[in-house]
Specification:
Helix content: 25-40%
Number of helices: 19
Strand content: 15-25%
Low-confidence stretches: 1-12, 214-231, 471-482
């Protein structure tokens, strides 16, 4: 009998090793041994987990996992095994489980892969029939200019060539009314029309379309059209790409702008809500339980039928944050409830909603967010269908690296006795599975230990939050297994993800990790196990969730209080002496992360529309720690003559006339030329043979930007600007304002930013003063 050892928390390199091995990063890698001590830590106890992170060393075995008969946790390297009695003890509930007959020959020298100490993450190929190929239903808004439609046609045609040949595709167009195109009718273009002001259920849609199993005479209210003869079933509307590519391409080329006229001073009638209801009903009737994507290509706000975002009068502006906070957005709450109900239907059917909103005005992403996030879908926000952000993002969505063609995932979490699960913040929906591991309180999607993720890819990252739920000194598990909250004892977490793989097989990935309880009540014992990068991302997601779920939540003040308490608890100082304050190296960068979070688009909604803020937060809630950190604290590279590119401080002092700066803020990439560099470029020095080094310097940041764009989804906006130019604001808004019109640091000689924001130095001075104050 044996139990695998617990890893010791160490440097940041150790945390990266944990992530590479098990795709897990915890905010705290040593946990306090009592609930009272846990409340002093302030930063949430949680982990970031990437269920489908590619792992070269991970074994894939062709059998089902062994489950505990009591708690249903999977057999893992931390289970105690009695090879003579052929049984194992679950490290979560301490139940004794007998091995099945095909494990009869196991021994210390001959063990199954799931017991190997190095295989803490393992994937099983579940033995069950493969599901049918995935379906992709394109829902296209035709209330747009012909030039925009032409760009959409080109992108859709290219997408068809990127899909697997056996993938099924369908097309719905909408404007004033909804048109479901019958691709299986080859004689001519044929579609079923649903009135834009109607209400449509799955049964009504199936009856109108004459799908197999629907009542032949059932017709949706307000729908017109004749049922097709000769064919009955999904093959009329969803066909493999190899069979309908020519017909669908021809249909796209013949698409025109919505035929219904638009009155002066009015918006076009756009029935987005009914179109999604029809799409949900069509996929639910033809591909329920199998993978499916609804790809909504939207060119403006919904103005007709259910899910309306704004009235048709141009004089009525689309709701702003001020309208929402004051309760003066007449369509907002009703539309959210409508899309939330649609999301529940999509989750039940295992289907995903992806939204591409391409317009200068808002399109209603704030209302649709609940539907998109619940299904694990993507949001992409661009100014036009001609914009590179849309074109490249739409193309990347169908690449194996981004989409991954993984569907219908379920995600379960198991924890040791004294650890309770608060919930998940990320692209998932609750399965309502209450277990002894579930806490009474909840964070994000809580009250459950299992979640559904209809669409999942290699970058999907879930943030699971925990609470310490016991008192120190509890006894250990039967047989001496480490698992109670005794001094130095271990605790365990297990993540089980079951999903449909790209090749059609059903997989089950199991990751089991262990960390330890603190040996003393001293908070400083927790410091070596603090992962400030993971903690910053978990804190950012938690604050964003609180902003959306609580009406009077002051995010900036909450972040400030958390920092003051953290520094007061873990800092080294003399009372009322700010000059004596020191933070341990493991926490030294965390205040800087929080400073940038306070200034970010996630907390500061002024100047951003609700659609933009929702888009930013949605991407934050699904990306891994390294990408999320770039969103919170952008990176800055400096290029100069005769020197290699080097990281620069995210500070206004980095701006110099003879430098080129490359700012990566995740949603935007900015190449910024100093005044001298801009003058040389305008004089065409880079075209002259004797200035080859200058030409190479100009090209280096462009190449770096192209490399970033090729690997990122959604594709960032690219900005090429000069110092003192109008677009230089994209860089200046992200820099630390250490040199402003109010307080200039005369010796720097750098750019002056006109802002009332405090600098990082001022922020840290106030933080030190508050942390060491006797009252704190």
């Amino acid at each position: 009998a044996r139990c695998a050892p617990s890893p010791r928390a160490g440097s940041m390199a150790d945390f990266s090793e944990y992530e590479a091995r098990d795709a897990v990063r915890l905010s705290w890698n040593v946990w306090p041994s009592s609930k009272v001590e846990a409340t002093k830590c302030v930063v949430p106890f949680g982990c970031l987990y990437k269920p489908l992170q590619p792992m070269e060393q991970m074994p894939v075995v062709p059998y089902d996992p062994q489950r505990c008969k009591s708690c249903a946790a999977c057999l893992n390297p931390y289970a105690r095994v009695d090879f003579q009695a052929k049984l194992w003890i679950c490290p979560f509930c301490y139940t004794r489980n007998h091995f099945p007959t095909h494990y009869a020959n196991i021994s210390p020298e001959s063990q199954p892969a799931e017991l190997y100490p190095n295989y803490t993450t393992i994937e099983y190929t579940v033995q069950q029939p493969n599901p049918p190929p995935p379906a992709f239903l394109f829902v296209l808004d035709v209330c747009q200019l012909e030039q925009e439609l032409a760009a959409v046609r080109a992108s859709l045609t290219q997408a068809l060539s990127l899909l697997p040949e056996n993938a099924r595709v369908g097309l719905i167009t909408f404007g004033t009314h909804v048109h479901v195109h019958e691709l299986g009718f080859a004689e001519c273009a044929k579609s079923y029309v649903f009135r834009g002001s109607g209400t449509y259920t799955r049964e009504a849609v199936a009856g109108q379309l004459g799908l197999t199993g629907a009542a032949a005479g059932q017709q949706a209210p307000g729908a017109t059209g004749t049922q097709a003869g000769g064919q009955g079933g999904a093959e009329r509307f969803l066909l493999p790409v190899s069979e309908c590519e020519f017909q669908l391409t021809t249909l796209l080329e013949e698409l025109t702008h919505d035929a219904f006229p638009v009155q002066p001073e009015q918006r076009p009638a756009r029935c987005t809500g009914p179109a999604l209801a029809v799409a949900t009903g069509l996929l639910g009737s033809t591909a329920a339980g199998s993978g499916g994507h609804i790809l909504l290509l939207l060119a403006g706000p919904a103005t007709e039928g259910q899910g309306t975002v704004v009235s048709r009068e141009n004089a009525d502006a689309v709701r702003s944050w001020k309208d929402i906070n004051k309760g003066s957005a007449p369509f907002y709450n009703k539309a959210r409830k409508y899309y939330e109900a649609l999301g529940q239907q999509l989750v039940a059917n295992g289907h995903v909603l992806d939204v591409f909103a391409c317009a200068l005005d808002q399109c209603g992403l704030a209302e649709m967010k609940v539907c998109v996030e619940a299904t694990g879908g993507h949001m992409v926000l661009a100014e036009s269908f001609h914009h590179e952000v849309f074109k490249k993002s739409f193309q990347q969505l169908f690449s194996a690296e981004v989409l991954g063609l993984a569907f219908n995932a379920t995600y379960e979490v198991f924890a040791s006795k004294d650890v309770k699960i608060l919930g998940n913040i990320g692209p998932c929906a609750s399965l309502g599975k209450r277990t002894p591991f579930v806490a009474d309180a909840s964070v994000g999607v809580g009250g459950t230990a299992a979640w559904k993720i209809a669409g999942i890819d290699a970058s999907t990252t879930l943030a699971t939050y925990f609470e310490v739920g016991g008192a120190a000194g509890q006894q250990q598990a039967p047989g001496g297994a480490a698992g109670g909250m005794g001094a130095g004892a271990q605790f365990f977490l297990q993540f089980v993800t079951r999903y449909t793989h790209a090749n059609g097989s059903v997989r089950c990935r199991v990751t089991t990790i262990t960390r330890r309880w603190s040996e003393t009540a001293s908070p400083h014992e927790l410091v070596p196990g603090f992962d400030q990068e993971a903690a910053a991302v978990l804190a950012a997601r938690h604050v964003c969730w609180k902003m959306e779920s609580e009406d009077d939540y002051d995010a900036t003040r909450s972040v400030d209080r958390m920092l003051i308490r953290l520094c007061s608890t873990f800092g080294e100082y003399n009372k009322d002496d700010p000059a004596s304050f020191r933070l341990p190296p493991q926490l030294s960068i965390f205040p800087q992360f929080m400073f940038n979070l306070r200034r970010s688009q996630f907390l500061q909604v002024f100047g951003n529309s609700p659609d933009e803020t929702v888009y930013f937060r949605s991407v934050l809630n699904r990306e891994a720690a390294n990408n999320a950190l770039v969103m919170i604290q952008p990176t800055l590279l400096s290029f100069s003559m005769g020197a290699a590119p080097e990281p620069a401080l995210l500070d206004v002092s980095a701006i110099q006339p003879d430098r080129i700066l490359l700012l990566d803020a995740y949603f935007s990439l900015v190449v910024f030329h100093g005044t001298t560099i801009a003058q040389w470029r305008k004089a065409n020095y880079h075209h002259q043979p004797e200035y080859e080094s200058f030409a190479a310097m100009l090209g280096a940041p462009q190449e770096e930007a192209r490399a970033i764009i090729s690997e990122r989804f959604p594709v960032p906006r690219f900005v090429d600007c000069d110092q003192n130019g109008s677009q230089a604001r994209f860089l200046l808004a992200k820099l630390n304002p250490s040199n402003t019109h109010n307080a200039q640091n005369g010796g720097t000689g750098g750019e002056v930013i006109f802002t009332d924001d405090v600098s990082l130095q001022t922020f840290m001075d106030h933080l030190r003063a508050r942390a060491v104050a006797s009252s704190s």
